[in-house]
Hints:
Distance between the termini: 27 Å
Number of domains: 2
Structural class: alpha/beta
Bound molecules: zinc ion
Strand content: 25-35%
Number of helices: 9
Radius of gyration: 24 Å
Amino acid sequence: MIVKRRTIPLRILVNEALLRRLPPNHPKRQEILKDLLIIRAGFKGEQDIDYYLSLLDDNDFHIFQDLRIPQGSKHFQIDLLLLSTKFILLIENKNMPGIIEFDPDFKQVFRRYNDTTEVYDCPIDQVKRQVYQFRNWLKKHNINPLPLEFLVTYSNHGSILQNPSKNQEVFDRVSKGGNLIFKIGEFQNSHQKEILTLKDIKKLTKLLIKSHEPETASIRKYNISPSEIIPGILCPACDRFSMERISRKWYCLHCGTSSTSAHEQAILDYFLLIGRTITNMQLRKFLLMPSRTIATYLLGNMDLKHTGSTKNRVYSKT
Ligand SMILES: [Zn+2]
């Protein structure tokens, strides 16, 4: 059963908002788009693996999607963790079409796609480092030591895996998505001894969920300042900042589209790009709209938390 579900990475939401609100000729747009496509592909790949994991018996594993656990001043991140009473399995997923060739002698992987060759660090080592860090974490929390298994999965149907040196570890530890449940079956066969009780599992599940710290994302990564963000309300039909408030609705002066909710995306963009909280005055400045009464009305009708008295009220996302 899934005990922790992944959420859309904040970096996806921030980069999408940046692409909505940076001028078309902004020098960082290419880099922001490139990062967005990579993170989206990773997210999609993990969702594809969920299908194969859904074929497992619901009672066999507690499944954690996307864990990010602090350790010292850093974090370690696990795409998928499967917890059972007999062993734990860590999975690192890759969503990469093309020919993937493992070179275990030099701990590297080549990817040939669209007439180009790229080189990556070996993902088996990557997941082994996660195992090492996770083992230390378990020790620190006095959890009974139990076998830790690991796999690298390639979720993309267009991944062509190659292991020219016939390396045994690559055969054992790398799997296409479709083969995943059979690999898991092998681990289940080789680990028959119950080490954790169901009570231990419950305790560990609680501890893992409590320890998870979602990744943050801000515009500082690209050295962008809030003054570069275009204010105003985007027309949902023609993608121009040309909406104005006319008799209780937003009207696009360019294409004539009307909307009662176009301000909501703008307010969410504000939270993603500029600040975690917003005041009435900040909203009016951002929506390019002078009316305090309308701003109060709009903020009151969104599902936002607020603190402070009516006059100095500060709103934030729930
Ligand atoms: Zn329009």
